[in-house]
Amino acid sequence: MGIGDDAACWHSDASIQLATSDALIQDVHFTLNTTTWRELGWKALAANLSDIAAMGGLPQYALVSLGLPGDTEVESITELYQGMVELTHLFDVAIVGGDVVAAPIVVLSLALVGTAQTGHIMTRSAAAPGERIVVTGFLGASGAGLVMLQSGLEFDKETATSLREAHLKPNPRVVEGQTLARHGVRAAIDLSDGLVSDLVQLCKASGVGARLFVDQIPVHPLVYHSFGDDATNLALSGGEDYELLFTASTEVISQVRESMPCPITVIGEIVEEEPGRMRLFDKHGNEATLEKKGWEHFAPRKR
Amino acid sequence: MGIGDDAACWHSDASIQLATSDALIQDVHFTLNTTTWRELGWKALAANLSDIAAMGGLPQYALVSLGLPGDTEVESITELYQGMVELTHLFDVAIVGGDVVAAPIVVLSLALVGTAQTGHIMTRSAAAPGERIVVTGFLGASGAGLVMLQSGLEFDKETATSLREAHLKPNPRVVEGQTLARHGVRAAIDLSDGLVSDLVQLCKASGVGARLFVDQIPVHPLVYHSFGDDATNLALSGGEDYELLFTASTEVISQVRESMPCPITVIGEIVEEEPGRMRLFDKHGNEATLEKKGWEHFAPRKR
């Protein structure tokens, strides 16, 4: 049914339902100084889509709760919705409800509902020792974009545009998540807080440890190009890349690789260890330490 | 599955899914000067439950997004959740996810998912000429409670407690909504903005008009007792009573009456008219006008 009733309402044939929600607060999660309304709308929905993607689900219906100051231009609200609608078209999602209320700052709270097939759900708690750790795409560009926007660093136009888009218009791996789940991948998480932080979360939930091979991490080429020595730290801790991290056997990985619409890279392995313990190794096989400076500096802003 | 994954996840046998969301902003929708954290939690969830109730649905899963200032006491957050948990126990709802983020003011955004049986959904758009207009329970006590809290009016302890509870701990008509839907009622709305405002909404959505018999409105006895001449205005426009307003034939109403766990009262009838046009009649059958003073004074704070 269309919008206008007390609740949104739809028929569903699937037996598994998924739901996620996220709130973005002005000057905590974004600033309108560097973010356009359209980008804000895109990013807010992308973050929720990524949560459904990490479970291997099919996103379907979004509820949008907006808190807006009284002096917000109608045009701004239109742009905000356009940013969301661009993404809903890409993934065939319908905005089915929500509300708009007065607020002293901009508050954007989204809830997203989806479905999945029985037996084809990925969770954080299913990683098993012996499995390889794999990521989709390239890492670090979102964190690099944030640093660029916050510090006013200047790059050539193409680099600047790409880093900005990586941070403000991330592409949630919805199709990829469903592909993984269909091929029997059972453990996954999306990279919102940062590779290290999210991998530790997955390991804790699964009661396992991890070895991470730092030189195998697919750092985004533009991040190497523009941030040099800091590039690896941005890939490890920058956050908000919204790539998927998953674990699987080598057999499953080679089957998955054929079907994935994006590159995937093995970056480590799951081991029997103190839950959540992660050890990094350099290209010589020596244990590396996570540079505290990088980690703190680029620490995720959201918990 | 339990909390801890990227999205909440559950099995569902029902074919109709319902979802609603609501955001409450500090000093717009509530003030912590007069509202306890526990009451805030209760009321936020009650408002969402009432939306599902208005559709005749069974509420099942809630997502709670909290924005909190850094100096919020842990105890306050515990109380907030206790307020919600009290209600989840009453209605067998599970809080399955959400997030907590930093914010300069308290922001409470809830999404609630539920189910309904095919063919047993109530909407705002199904009211038909000839049907009677009916409300559950008694009206005006929530608005009276708000006026009392805002103006510092003093009443005897029992009255003060009842009016406060009516405003801050409303009882969503979940069981009643399902009973109505099961008995064939097709048009309903919950009274959140106020009787007049919500009835006009229902009439607009249904393309009909309404006649309201003011002397038949079940004004809450305590509101008569404590607000005298203003009582009827509070019942007409006070808002946030979270009773259900529905329309049905006299036959359906008499069948429903037997099964309802609360009183129901016929207060008017649906007529063929300019959509949304509502006329009020006094006990002598003369057309009455809505006192602008009362209407404006007690206008709903939320749109």
Kindly report the oligomeric state of this protein: homodimer
Rounded to the nearest angstrom, the radius of gyration of chain A is 19 Å
What amount of the residues of chain A lies in strands?
25-35%
Mean pLDDT of chain A: 92
Give a verbal description of the structure.
2 copies of one chain form a homodimer. Chain A is of the alpha+beta class and 303 residues long. The first copy, chain A, contains 10 helices and 12 strands. Chain A has helices spanning 37-54, 74-91, 141-151, 157-168, 174-182, 195-206, 221-227, 231-237, 250-259, 292-297; strands spanning 8-11, 16-25, 58-68, 94-102, 107-116, 132-136, 187-190, 209-213, 244-248, 264-271, 278-281, 287-288. Chain A has a 7-stranded mixed sheet, sandwiched between helices. A 4-stranded mixed sheet of chain A has the order 2-5-3-4, with helices on one face. In chain A, strand 11 and strand 12 (287-288) form a beta hairpin. In chain A, helix 1 runs parallel beside helix 2 and helix 1 (37-54) packs parallel to helix 5 (174-182). The first copy, chain A, is globular. Residues 292-303 of chain A have low confidence and may be disordered. At the A-B interface, strand 1, strand 2, helix 1, strand 3 and strand 4 of A face strand 1, strand 2, helix 1, strand 3 and strand 4 of B.
